[in-house]
């Protein structure tokens, strides 16, 4: 099976609700698509995500009722559960700093380039300022500071805990799209499912309470009836605005 171009993959991808039980998919190919998912752009390269690749039929059977027995879950060959992990910001910031120390071996400040100084300061100071909070109190203080400072100059406004939660989920969603298009390029099908009892799914998978499920993606090979009609989109002229 030849791989599809990007445009072909985008047009081929549909949310498939019924998969063919007779056509199996290769777990190694799905894993490769997850590896491509992690190449997605994400906020500050913090990579606040985790991917749980469910290949066990027993586990799928436990999760399907928690997805309200959607056909996309019941007939899935495999599942990929994408989680947002805002709580891992310290660990991921350190990983970025460690990488920078490889790119820019430590040297006296006077010998450091402006790029090196900015990059290291970004993960040492700006990221902790942005992500740190204490029961919402520090977030509100930051918000008030930004609100006042923003009167005089452009400012980054999303500094509260709930704002950073949205940021983490946006990054996870970008990875999800990478994954689904990679699967489409392989001739495999997917369906992103938001309808689920995420608390119970987390319990089945043994996820920590701080992990937040971004979406559950079912995987398989479509049956003809698995695609519910022709694709419908609002007329392009209604959503496209050139300025």
What does this protein look like?
The chain has 243 residues and is of the alpha+beta class. The chain has a domain at 6-87 and 163-223: 3-Layer(aba) Sandwich (NADH Oxidase). The protein is 46% helix and 11% strand. It has a four-stranded antiparallel β-sheet with strand order 1-2-4-3, sandwiched between helices. The longest helix is centred in the last third of the chain and has 25 residues, at 161-185. The model has no long low-confidence stretch (mean pLDDT 95).
What tags apply to this protein structure?
NADH Oxidase; 243 residues; single chain; four-stranded antiparallel sheet; alpha+beta
State the distance separating the first and last CA atoms. 42 Å
Biggest sheet strand line-up: 1-2-4-3
Number of strands: 4
Number of helices: 10
CATH architecture of the domain at 6-87 and 163-223: 3-Layer(aba) Sandwich
Main β-sheet: number of strands, strand sense, barrel status? 4 strands, antiparallel
CATH superfamily of the domain at 6-87 and 163-223: NADH Oxidase
Please write the CATH class name of the domain at 6-87 and 163-223: Alpha Beta
Rounded to the nearest angstrom, the radius of gyration is 21 Å
Write the H/E string, N to C: HHEHHEHHHHEHEH
The average pLDDT value, as a whole number, equals: 95
């Amino acid at each position: 099976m030849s791989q599809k171009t990007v445009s072909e993959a985008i047009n081929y991808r549909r949310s498939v609700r019924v998969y063919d039980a007779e056509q199996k998919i290769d777990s190694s190919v799905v894993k490769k698509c997850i590896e491509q998912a992690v190449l997605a752009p994400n906020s500050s390269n913090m990579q606040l995500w985790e991917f749980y690749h469910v290949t066990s039929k027993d586990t799928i059977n436990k999760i399907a009722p928690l997805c309200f027995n959607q056909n996309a879950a019941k007939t899935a060959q495999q599942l990929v559960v994408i989680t947002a992990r805002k709580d891992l910001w310290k660990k991921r910031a350190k990983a970025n700093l460690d990488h920078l120390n490889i790119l820019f071996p430590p040297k006296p400040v006077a010998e450091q380039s402006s790029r090196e100084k900015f990059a290291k300061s970004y993960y040492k100071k700006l990221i902790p300022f942005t992500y740190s909070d204490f029961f919402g109190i520090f977030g509100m203080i930051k918000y008030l500071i930004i609100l006042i400072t923003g009167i005089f100059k452009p400012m980054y406004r999303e500094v509260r805990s709930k704002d950073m939660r949205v940021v983490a989920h946006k990054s996870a969603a970008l990875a999800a799209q990478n994954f689904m298009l990679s699967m489409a390029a392989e001739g495999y099908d997917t369906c992103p499912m938001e309808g689920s009892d995420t608390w119970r799914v987390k319990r089945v998978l043994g996820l920590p309470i701080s992990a937040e499920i971004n979406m559950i993606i079912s995987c398989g090979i479509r049956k003809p009836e698995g695609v519910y009609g022709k694709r419908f989109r609002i007329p392009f002229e209604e959503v496209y605005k050139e300025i």
